[in-house]
Amino acid sequence: MSHTAHIPSHRKPRQRASKSALRAGVAGGVLSTIAVAGAAGPAQAEAQAEPVTQTIEMPTITAGLSAAVAASAEATQQIALDLEAQAHEAAAAKSAAKEAKKAKAEAVRKAEAKKKAEAAAEARAEAEAQERTERASRTAERTTLSAPATASTGSSSGNSAPASAPSAAPAPSSNASGSAGAIVAFAKAQVGDAYVAGGTGPNAWDCSGLVQAAYRSVGIDLPRVSQAQSTAGTQVSLNALQPGDILYWGAAGSAYHVAIYVGGGQFVGAQNSSTGTVQRSMDYDRPTGAVRVL
Length: 294
Known about the structure:
Among the domains are: 65-149; 180-292, Alpha-Beta Complex (endopeptidase fold (from Nostoc punctiforme)). The strands form 2 sheets. It has a 6-stranded antiparallel sheet. The protein has a two-stranded parallel ribbon with strand order 1-2. It is of the alpha+beta class. The chain has helices at residues 17-49, 62-157, 175-189, 207-216, 226-229, and strands spanning 194-195, 204-205, 234-236, 246-249, 257-263, 266-272, 276-281, 289-292. Helix content is 54%, strand content 12%.
């Protein structure tokens, strides 16, 4: 027996190959894990340091909103068009009413002018008819008066031959009667016209302007103012008036108002701004005197 046989050995016993391989595999895996962790560490830290910039997409509502805005704009435009149309219609109606009022006023004016012209023509016709009647009456009177004179002359001469009749005296001028009738007709045709101080027609008068125009219609020129017109002719009594005579209020030569006597106790005159041109009874405002121009 060897002298070392009973001495215990200090060497470790051999391990099996499989266990050695296992240990080698575990060690390799740990080292790999450490290496991977070491490599990933800086990248992970860098990734954590970078801010998140992720974009979130919101739902799209542009189509519906655009349609609503378009519909609202269209409605607003329609309202504006309606208001504009209403404004045009109102303006047209106002203009039409104004034109109608103007046309009506013009028609009334023409109707009044026509009425006055007809009244003046009727008055002239009546005056002419009266003048013809008076002329015929005067002719008949002259014939009646000349017949006895002729018979008397024939008897006194003793001759059988008829004596020539003496020439008749000139007949009174008929212009006075005819002119008076025309003056009266003119004055009556102005009844209803306005009174305007200084007015000389054709649709507005003052008192002396109307008298002057009436006499001018028969070719007679009178002074313009009432003071001068009150002495333009022969003074006559208010109890012996004839149509066409000039009536005056106030003293002769300083009269403050004049008018035309139209017969039947009435006169026509441009009185004042309240009454205008009127035909009134002399009892309405008794004149002071009268003058006869014709």
